[in-house]
Design goal:
Layout (H helix, E strand, L loop, with lengths): L3 E11 L6 H13 L2 E10 L6 H8 L8 E6 L5 H10 L5 E5 L9 H9 L4 E6 L7 H18 L3 H4 L4 E4 H8 L4 H4 L3 H4 L4 E6 L11 H15 L2 H30 L7 H34 L6 E6 L4 H6 L4 H4 L10
Parallel strand pairs: 1-2, 1-4, 2-3, 5-7
Antiparallel strand pairs: 3-8, 4-6, 5-6
Helix pairs in contact: 5-10, 11-12
Length: about 350
C-alpha cells in the first residue's frame, strides 16, 4: 500500500450506532494509520438516542481511540449539515468525507493518490446502491434531473457524498454565506481540479431515508443553490407580458371581424382567467423563494454542538518527543546551587 506524507482528516457522521462505532473507528484507524503520516478522526453524532454518546466518550479516554474528535449534536440535522460541521473543524491538509455504513474506506488510497497528484476534489461513486423504494427512486431521479437542468451538475454522479477535499476547497466553501447548504455542490462547480472515480462494494447497512425529508432537502438545495427560482419568475413574467400582448391583439381582431359577440364579456372573462392563472404561478414561486430566504435569516444556526470530546491520546504529540527544557540544562562549571 502506498504511503502519503500528509495530514489527513476523516469525517464520519453516525446516528444510533453504539454497537458498531468502536469497530468502525478501529477499522478506520488501522487503515489510515498505515496510509498517511498523521491523521485525525472526526465523528459527528447526529443526535443519537441510544448509547452512542457514552460509547464515543469512552473511546476518547486514555485507553481509547487515538486522534479522535467527537461532536455531539443536540438535534438531528440533514447529512450535508452534519458533514459540514466536521469539515469546518478539520485541521488536515486533505479531508475525507465518509459514510461509514455506505462507503468503502478501503478505496481511500486510490482517492488520496489522485488528491496528492494535484486534484483538489476527488469524488467516488459506489456502483452498488442500497435498496430504495420505487417512490424514493422516482423522486431521486426527478430531483437530479431538475438540478442538472438548472445547474449543469448531476449531484448523484458528479458530486457524491464520498469525497476527498483539499484545504483550499474547504477554505473556499467557508467564504460562502451558507456553507452547510452549498457544501454538497460547490466542490464540483467551483472550478477546482476534479476527479471522479467509481468502485464497487456492498454497503454495510441500508439507510432508512424518509421521502418527505429528502424532498424538503432537495427543495432547499434547488431554491438556495441555483438561480432557477428567479429565472422561473422572470420567465413567467415575460410569458405573461407576451400572452397579454397577443391576447390584446386577438381581442382587437375579434372586434374588427365579429359583430355578434356580447359586448366585452368573452374577452374580459378569458383575460381574467388567464392572467389570474399566471399571477398565481408567479406568486407561488416568489412565495417559496422569499420563504427560503426568510428561514435562512430568522431560524438561527442549522446546528448546535451540545457536547465535545477530544482524545486523550494524540499520536502527533507523541511523535514530537518533547523533552523538558530543565532536563537539558547543565550547570555552569564552578557554579553551585545555594
Amino acid at each position: 500500500m502506498e504511503f502519503f506524507p500528509i495530514f489527513l482528516s476523516v469525517v464520519f457522521v453516525v446516528r444510533n450506532q453504539s454497537g458498531n462505532i468502536e469497530k468502525i473507528l478501529s477499522d478506520a484507524s488501522s487503515c489510515i494509520s498505515s496510509l498517511v503520516s498523521d491523521y485525525e478522526l472526526i465523528v459527528v453524532d447526529n443526535a443519537s438516542d441510544d448509547d452512542s454518546v457514552s460509547a464515543l466518550k469512552n473511546l476518547t479516554g486514555e485507553n481509547g481511540q487515538p486522534n479522535l474528535q467527537v461532536y455531539v449534536l443536540t438535534k438531528e440535522v440533514d447529512a450535508d449539515t452534519a458533514f459540514w460541521l466536521g469539515l469546518e473543524n478539520a485541521l488536515g491538509d486533505f479531508v475525507a468525507v465518509i459514510d461509514p455504513l455506505a462507503d468503502d474506506i478501503g478505496f481511500l488510497p486510490e482517492m488520496l493518490d489522485k488528491a496528492v497528484s494535484g486534484a483538489d476534489v476527488v469524488f467516488a461513486s459506489n456502483e452498488q446502491k442500497p435498496a430504495r423504494s420505487l417512490a424514493y427512486r422516482g423522486a431521486f431521479a426527478v430531483f437530479n434531473g431538475l438540478y442538472k437542468w438548472f445547474s449543469g451538475i448531476n449531484l448523484a454522479k458528479e458530486a457524491p457524498q464520498y469525497r476527498v477535499l483539499s484545504k483550499r476547497v474547504v477554505n473556499f466553501i467557508l467564504q460562502h454565506p451558507q456553507p452547510a447548504l452549498t457544501y454538497r455542490h460547490l466542490p464540483a462547480s467551483g472550478g477546482f481540479a476534479r476527479v471522479n472515480l467509481n468502485y464497487s462494494a456492498m454497503p454495510k447497512i441500508s439507510h432508512t431515508k424518509r421521502l418527505g425529508e429528502s424532498i424538503d432537502r432537495g427543495m432547499r438545495l434547488l431554491v438556495s443553490t441555483t438561480r432557477a427560482p428567479m429565472r422561473l419568475v422572470t420567465s413567467l413574467s415575460l410569458f405573461g407580458a407576451v400572452a397579454n400582448l397577443l391576447y390584446s391583439i386577438y381581442v382587437v381582431a375579434i372586434g374588427f371581424l365579429k359583430t355578434d359577440v356580447a359586448p366585452g364579456w368573452i374577452s374580459l372573462s378569458l383575460q381574467q382567467s388567464g392572467m389570474f392563472f399566471l399571477i398565481s404561478l408567479v406568486l407561488l414561486v416568489l412565495g417559496e423563494y422569499i420563504l427560503q430566504m426568510t428561514s435562512l435569516s430568522n431560524e438561527g444556526p442549522l446546528y448546535h454542538v451540545g457536547r465535545e470530546f477530544t482524545s486523550a491520546r494524540m499520536t502527533r504529540r507523541e511523535k514530537l518527543n518533547i523533552e523538558e527544557v530543565a532536563a537539558k540544562l547543565t550547570q555552569t562549571p564552578g557554579s553551585y546551587p545555594e
